[in-house]
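Progress narrative, Year 2. Work on Zona pellucida sperm-binding protein 3 from Cyprinus carpio advanced from sequence curation to structure prediction during this period.
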Amino acid sequence: DWRFPIFPEVQSELAVGFQLRQPVTPSSVAVKKDLFSNGQLIQPYRLSRGGYPVVDEDSASRVLIFEYELQNCNSVLMMTEDELVYTFALTYTTEAFAGTPITCAEGAVVGVQCLCQRFYNASSNALKSTWVPYASTEVGEEVLLFSLKLMMGLPANLYFLGDTINIEVSVMVYNHVPLCVFVDSCVATQVPDVNALLRYSFIENHGCPVDAKSMASSSRFMPQTQEDKIRFQLEAFMVQGGYSPSIYITCIVKATLASAPSDALRKSCSFSNGWLAADGNHQACGCCDSTCGPDGGNVVPFGVLFLLASPIRTYRL
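Result:
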């Protein structure tokens, strides 16, 4: 006793704790007062960074502090793949003792580099990509929703003989791994009953539009650009001896893992001087003239479903 599946409620995305963190731009350089590691503490006024003086002193730690933007102080910027490198000079000057030409030390220039990361993680915590809420997992495992619809170019589903009917089959993936949808078979009837006496099977053998070869019709699968959607074109026709111009189309569709290659049981073929596959794997269509039985493929479908499209009406010109 088949029932149409209940559409699951789309779970709203869970709020993620987020706090924007602005990268802190380095703007200070600390220099030990024992610059030469000889026990002699230098005077702050004798030291400069690119011509800029010391702005603060930490007496407890015995360091001198420069508070300037790195791009100032006559710095030179170089860039590597991961870092910004600011290079500048610390200049130490000496002067003679008062009233004498005597000095006890020489001046010095010390090169300094400041390395800054080019990239930062601005979020508070990185998301765990493997974590999926239970509700999402339940939707992904238990329900697959297929759709079979007419891509209508005319109002009221009206077509004339020889017109092209565009049909799209799709599967809603939700939180599944990527899936690929296929059309196993399609039957046209004049009543919404797949077992009706007057019926016309135009797709058979797991994805082979048989009327394209037997009747030289233009029916074909379109090149597949999205794995969860497949479109095919059907040349409009009428059922001979029928009492109504209405036609109901019923298809068996299925979805399998998109990562698995197409084969004899999961394919979308078209005939044009030979059988060709919508995904380019033409070898999978080699059985369309025979029987694409269970031995032709080994992929178990995630879901199989009968789909009934809206009725269409076909008229003679």
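Confidence is low (pLDDT under 50) at residues 134-140, 295-307. Helices lie at 134-142, 211-214.
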